[in-house]
Amino acid sequence: MSTRDGGCLCGDVRYRVAGEPVVARICWCSDCQRIAGNGTANAIFAADAVSISGAVAEYVRTADSGNRIHHRFCARCGSHLFAHSSGRPGFLVVRLGTLDDPSSIRPRANIWTTRAPAWACMDGALEQFEGQPVFTPPPS
Ligand SMILES: [Zn+2]
Ligand SMILES: [Zn+2]
User: Fold this and answer.
1) For residue 6, which ligand has an atom nearest its CA?
2) pLDDT, average across residues 103-119
3) Is the pTM above the cut of 0.90?
């Protein structure tokens, strides 16, 4: 099974993901814009496919979707690496830009497009969702 490595800006947190993500998307929700200064590019993996080393801090907040989101970031440099949503138990969001090779996963949709700023650059070839698309976990 293929693996990918990633980590935070300062290098304290490193992680490895196994296999392919369930889905990869760019999110323009208000919370993502706050944490990233922009949309976030994310891949959703089965939580047990991700192994993490280093000190990860957490901030929990209710998102636009109504789900409780556990934002996880490096305790030292603050880089946002992961998120876990109460609406998707068993899955972990990985921020694509923290992969050592971010190009190795391609987002296939923009979500929360109604919250995107007027200057947002969106690839018209990708699927677009005005809000949170329904998440259908793959059969396990
Ligand atoms: Zn760090
Ligand atoms: Zn978002």
Assistant:
1) 1
2) 96
3) yes
Q: Strands, DSSP E only, in 22-111? A: 23-27, 40-46, 50-53, 56-62, 68-74, 80-85, 91-95, 109-111
The domain limits of the chain are: 3-118
Q: What is the CA(127)–ligand 2 centre distance, in A?
A: 16
pLDDT bin (cut points 50, 70, 90) of residue 139 is: low
Average pLDDT, the chain: 94
* Nearest ligand atom owner, CA of 76: 1
Q: Ligand 2 center to residue 140 CA distance, Å? A: 26
The total number of residues shown for the chain amounts to 140
Pick the CATH number of 3-118 from 2.170.150.70, 3.40.50.1000, 1.10.260.40, 3.40.1160.10: 2.170.150.70
Q: Quick one: which ligand is closest to 71's CA?
A: 2
The single-letter code of the amino acid at 94 is V
Residues with CB under 5 A from ligand 2 (ion): 27, 29, 32
